[in-house]
Amino acid sequence: MSKPIDTREFRGALGNFATGVTIITTVDHDGDPVGLTASSFNWVSKDPPLILFSLDKSAYSLAAFTNYRHFAVNVLREGQEELSNRFAVSLGDKWAGIEHSVWDSGCPILEDCLASFECGIRNTYDGGDHMIFVGEVLKLFSQSEGRPLVFHRGRYCTLDVE
Predict the structure, then answer these.
(1) Of 38, 42, 72, 160, which sees the most CB atoms within 10 A?
(2) CA quadruple 131, 134, 139, 144: dihedral, nearest 10
(3) Structural domain for 47, as ranges
(4) What is the Cα–Cα distance from 64 to 106, expressed in whole angstroms?
(5) What is the CATH number of the domain that holds 47?
(6) DSSP state string for 84-99
(7) Within a domain: residue 4?
């Protein structure tokens, strides 16, 4: 019989996997923008174009993502650490002074990101203490200029890519 996995040790081990940094957005029942920083973003399928992210079930914004049925993923670039930190907090006025546009679904699209994906929720799955959202990409924008913002071992870093 194996011993239970220590959650702090598990999280520390996962920190060895470098990830990109995104801000996932939607709107709440009043039409107000909602956003959060997430590194749990991944590509699922090319045909149809599907992506996923996961959200802690205790997150204040869970109801907005579940009820609205659309979300946007904004891939951050080097130099956007302050933006990432702003959207990493649970509450507060994250949107004050933040430039964004709105595409067809109404989800906020942040300015100057490396890529943005507007999605309709295709499926949700129970993922333990997280909810997994699979979205079908409805519209996208990609900018080839710039380096990605990367998170590794509890801190931001950059890649030397051209």
Answers:
(1) 72
(2) 80
(3) 19-154
(4) 13
(5) 2.30.110.10
(6) HHHHHSSSS-TTTT--
(7) no
Write the pLDDT tens digit of every residue in 97-150.
999 999 999 999 999 999 999 999 999 999 999 999 999 999 999 877 889 999
Q: Is the dihedral of CA 133, 136, 139, 141 positive or negative?
A: positive
Residue type, 141: F
Structure confidence at residue 1 (pLDDT) = 66
Report yes or no on 31 lying in a domain: yes
Distance CA 79, CA 98 (A): 15
Angle at 106 between CA 120 and CA 54, to 5 degrees: 45
Burial category of 55 from C-beta neighbours within 10 Å (exposed 0-12, middle 13-18, buried 19 and up)? buried
Model pTM score: 0.91
pLDDT for residue 162: 57
Structural domains of the chain, count? 1
109 within some domain: yes
Q: Is 48 exposed, middle or buried (0-12, 13-18, 19+ CB in 10 A)?
A: exposed
As a whole number of angstroms, the distance between CA 139 and CA 160 comes to 29
Query: Is 83 among the domain residues?
Result: yes
